[in-house]
Each structure stands twice: as structure tokens, then as C-alpha cells.
Amino acid sequence: MKYCNQCGEKVDQAIPENDNRLRYVCVSCETIHYQNPNIVAGTLPLIMGDDGREKVLLCKRAIEPRYGLWTLPAGFMENGETVEAAALRESQEEANVELDNLKLYSVMSMPQINQVYMIFKGDIVGNSFSPGIESLETQLFDEEDIPWSEMAFNVITQTLQCYFDDRKKQHRSQLTDYQVHNLVYQVPKKYLNTDKT
Amino acid sequence: MKYCNQCGEKVDQAIPENDNRLRYVCVSCETIHYQNPNIVAGTLPLIMGDDGREKVLLCKRAIEPRYGLWTLPAGFMENGETVEAAALRESQEEANVELDNLKLYSVMSMPQINQVYMIFKGDIVGNSFSPGIESLETQLFDEEDIPWSEMAFNVITQTLQCYFDDRKKQHRSQLTDYQVHNLVYQVPKKYLNTDKT
Ligand SMILES: [Zn+2]
Ligand SMILES: [Zn+2]
């Protein structure tokens, strides 16, 4: 950030009164420009196969970063939406999939890139899905077929691992209901873009 | 938003390619300025009283909006934090209270004002608390003493109501563990500030 979006004059970094953090402050109109983390909302789309085994829908990315790698449908929550609405919209956009019985499943803070992932479990409606504009492929996977070495984002890998662990516990009746997993994900340094605007 | 924070030229509203929403786009450098919801992180601080009854800590606001009304410690999550770290920081700042055993308890989308509240249950450490700079008072309340008619924010009232309901169910053994409540809160029109920057 170099200029004030209210008046077009230069901004400077300063700690405002009653604050303890450096903020961008306009040298002319004195507007303080706060910068805050963004929510990435997505889904873990599930369906019971004809073989009696529950499957997970993954999307192969048609965009950078991580072109050609697999992920869950997810993207930035927009103004005017609820978190669920954002998760459903992203699922529709990336996988043309409709979901019901949505339940918040994982909340992952990524403090190094100022993002919070919020992933909802949901049941695929009508066994219907196909690649949206940002996906090359959409495919159902059994746990043992998940392409672990071709996953786009570790934060998604971690959510899937939590889910398969929970599912095993539930099969063994050690888990009465799925709990929300609230985790912190430390992004490897090599992926950090420190050029904050 | 009137000016580009990258180059200082004017912004215009336009739907960028491969997008379907109006964004602020710089007429000169073509930077797209996305606007996204903010997370408000806070806590529901709990302590078992000497009378064997669990109490909730509330803060009386020393700042606008809702000066003089009661609320839970909460505030905007900052860049570089996890959601929990933000909730703990706000609790420290507003009530000089330290908490442990933090568990995500409610997630409330407020689409009309582009906020998502995330409130964590936590146990007060050392029975120690006092008003921070943004609070006039901090006080422990039994359920029947909660000043329901003097609460600052309906979203906080709703979280407290969920909690007392859950606690009753747990006493009756109808609830094995507290679940996360994921709710949508519709802000009454009179509170809406539509002057988005
Ligand atoms: Zn300015
Ligand atoms: Zn520009």
C-alpha cells in the first residue's frame, strides 16, 4: 500500500493513538488503513458409493498456483455472504456440485499468509459433478486412492487426514459425532509472499 | 474507495474478466482491489464460583458503539495472528483476563456488515480480571443475573443463549460434548452502515 484509497495522497506507516501496531495512515486525510486476514471457505464433498464405501470429491486445479494438483473446492469468501454460502458457491464454481447437510468441519489459521480456512463437510446431491472453469477434472476418491503426493495444499491434505482418522474412530464407535478441528497451519517459508500490499 | 492504493490514480467499478462481481479496478495500473469480510474473534470466559456455580465474565463497554452496554471480549483479528491468538489478545486487552482450555464455540456470519464472529469458550486462569482501556467494568455473572436488556450486541446475546441452553442439556446428560454453533445473524437494518469504503 502506497496511497490512500480515500484521497489519493501518500500513506505512511505509524502507530495510531490507542493502538500498538504499525498501520498505513494517510499523511493528508489521516485515514487509518487496517489490514486483516481473509477467510477461505470450502467443502469436503462426500458421497456413499454403490460399493457401500464413502468417497471424497477432489478437483484438479486448472489455475495457478499449483496448476494440475488436487484440492478440495475452496476460495475467498466475498462480502455479503455467509461462510456456508461462500463454501457452497465455491463448490458450485469449481466442481458444479450441489451439497446438503453442510457442517463446519475444520478451521485452520494460517498466520503467515493472513488466511483462515473454513471447510464444511457436506453430502453430494444427486451424484452430479463436473469440472468448473478453474478445474481440469473432478473425481471421487476412496481413501486409499487419494493422490497424496499430488495434493496442491498441505492445509487441505491435513483436513482430509483429520477426516479419515475421524471416520475410522467412528467406525470403531470411539466418536459419537464429528467435532470441528481447529488447527494452526504453519506455511513453509518457501511459499511465503512477503510483498504485502 | 476512490483511489488506487498502489498508484494513487482513480478507481472505477467494473467486473473483471473471469469474475462475476463488481470490483474496484484502477483505471491506470489495472489493479483489482478485492474487499472481503473480517473476522471478529472473542471469548466466553468461564469460571466455577465458590458457590459451585459456573459464571461468565462480561465487559461493560467504555467505547462507542454501545458505550455502557455489556458484551464478551472480542475484536478484529489482526494479520499475523491465529484466530485463538486474536481471541486471547482481545480478552487480555479488554478484561485483563488469561484463559486456557480454549475451544471454538460459535461461528456467526453477519453478511450485512461483512463480519464473521468466532467465539471460543475458555476457563479463566487464577480468578483474575479487571477492566482494560476499552472497558468500564468487568464482572462475573450467574445465568439469572445476565443483564439481558443491557447487552451491546445481539450476536453476543445469541452466543450466551446457546451456551446456557447447552449447559442445561449437558446437566440433563442430553449432550456429551459441546458442539460448535454455526449461525447466521441478520443485523437489524437500523444498524447498517452502507457507506462501504
Ligand atoms: Zn487520505
Ligand atoms: Zn493503480
From TrEMBL, chains A, B:
Family matches, as SUPFAM superfamilies: Nudix
PROSITE patterns linked: NUDIX, NUDIX_BOX
UniProtKB keywords: Hydrolase, Magnesium
Gene3D superfamilies: 2.20.70.10, Nucleoside Triphosphate Pyrophosphohydrolase
GO molecular function: hydrolase activity
Residue stretches in coiled coil: none
Cofactor(s) listed in the protein's UniProt record: Mg(2+)
Residue ranges of every copy of the Nudix hydrolase domain listed in the record: 37-164
Similarity comment: Belongs to the Nudix hydrolase family.
Descriptive protein name: ADP-ribose pyrophosphatase YjhB (NUDIX family)
